[in-house]
Design a protein that fits this description.
The protein is globular, with a radius of gyration of 21 Å. The strands form two sheets. The protein has a seven-stranded mixed β-sheet, sandwiched between helices. Strand 2, helix 3 (47-56) and strand 3 form a beta-alpha-beta unit. The longest helix is centred in the N-terminal third of the chain and has 11 residues, at 108-118. 28% of the residues lie in helices and 13% in strands. It is an alpha/beta fold. It contains 13 helices and nine strands. The protein has a domain at 2-204 and 326-370: Vaccinia Virus protein VP39 (Rossmann fold).
Length: 374
């Protein structure tokens, strides 16, 4: 049972040690901490994200360019697991995606350098859904092959975090690599939530449930000023609707190709995906109140607890929240991995299993990554 597994790691001396890369404000780390792990070293390039990480996760983060950091530096401790969400903008499906050819598309190789140098028992890398189609599907194939060549059995899976208790429809790819000599037969966890709460699962956590009863003194909860025109535009949009619900003949109608523009929440459903940046109309909007979400509401929709205090300007905090991995979305994965650190599992021949995987056409492997209906 997960609770018993967590109990095996209830002291700092025997908690699995995380080395965290592209850490951001620490959402991925927080989810693993909630399952009994501990971060011993972290890195990010963003000053304000590092400040938020330091305030909430721990004073173990190094601010700087990962491409300039040597993973063999003696000040970087050994670890049991490496976590990280290498930059995803070059794989995003919202904007035109250059993929591996983009300025940041090859930063996964820095993640690869650390894995190759530290040889953790397992690694977890997170990225956007667009990674699966970038460079005509060659990007994901190249990334998996590179990690396999480091001595890991790699399984990727497309998650919808609403299916793991996050009050938000958010699809992300999680790539998990298990070191071949461990013999740990990892399988991605099954969803814990669904729309109806049937078949032994819990019902989705809705946006209305998530943002109710926020304390008046909660941090990062300032209202964003919006124009009178925006307020009037929101009043024309129904619950769960967006800009397209405004009649074309109306003077406040706006043209857009993005469904997220002036998207208002539906109280009885998980939120649509929270994003990190964007111009007018992309903040995400409350219902029934004609206003933008506060950053604390956005944080709740990302499953951050109220005592997680973000550091920086309103725009900067929005960026940190939108870029983060929702902590609740990875808790079940973190629990699933715990036996590899306690040794309490039956070993399998991962070398043989990897050879069998490589004999399968990558197109068929990709269909497994996408899973069933999401």
């Amino acid at each position: 049972m997960p609770s018993k597994q967590i109990a095996n790691f209830n002291s700092s001396d025997n908690k699995p040690r995380i080395l965290s890369l592209f850490s951001g404000c620490g959402g991925l780390d927080l989810g693993f901490h909630q399952a009994g792990y501990e971060t011993v070293w972290a890195n990010d390039f963003s000053h304000w994200a590092c400040e938020s990480f330091r305030k909430n996760i721990g004073d173990v983060i190094v601010e700087g360019d990962i491409e300039q950091i040597d993973p063999n530096d003696p000040t970087i401790p050994d670890c049991d697991i490496i976590l990280g969400g290498f930059p995803c903008q070059d794989f995003s499906m919202i904007w035109k995606q250059p993929g591996l050819e983009g300025e940041r598309g090859n930063l996964y190789k820095s993640f690869l350098r650390f894995v190759n140098a530290k040889k953790p028992k397992v690694f977890v890398a997170e990225n956007v859904k667009g990674l699966l189609t970038a460079n005509k599907k060659k990007a994901i194939q190249q990334i998996i092959t590179d990690f396999e060549n480091c001595g890991y059995y790699v399984q990727a899976k497309l998650y919808n975090f609403a299916e793991f208790g996050v009050p938000q429809f958010r699809e992300r790819v999680l790539i998990v690599g298990v070191r071949l000599d461990t013999g740990f037969d990892f399988h991605h966890p099954e969803p814990t939530h669904n729309e109806t709460g049937e078949n032994g699962l819990k019902p989705y956590v809705t946006a209305g449930q998530a943002i109710s009863n926020i304390p008046k003194n909660a941090s990062n909860n300032e209202l964003l000023k919006i124009s009178e025109q925006t307020r009037k535009r929101l009043e024309l949009i129904p619950e769960g609707g967006n800009y397209s619900d405004i009649p074309k003949e109306h003077p406040l109608y706006v043209k857009s190709m993005l469904s997220l523009v002036y998207r208002r929440m539906h109280r009885n459903r998980p939120s649509t995906t929270i994003i990190a940046a964007g111009g007018g109309g992309t903040w995400g909007y409350h219902f029934p109140e004609p206003r933008a979400f506060t950053n604390r509401e956005r944080a709740r929709l990302q499953s951050f607890p109220d005592d997680f205090e973000f550091v920086g300007s309103t725009t900067e905090v929005r960026r940190q929240i939108g870029n983060a991995v929702p902590p609740q979305g990875v808790v079940e994965l973190a629990r699933t991995l715990l036996p590899i650190f306690s040794g309490n599992y039956k070993k399998v021949d991962l070398h043989k299993k990897l050879k069998a995987e490589k004999d399968v056409l990558f197109h068929d492997r990709l269909s497994k990554i996408r899973g069933g209906k999401r």
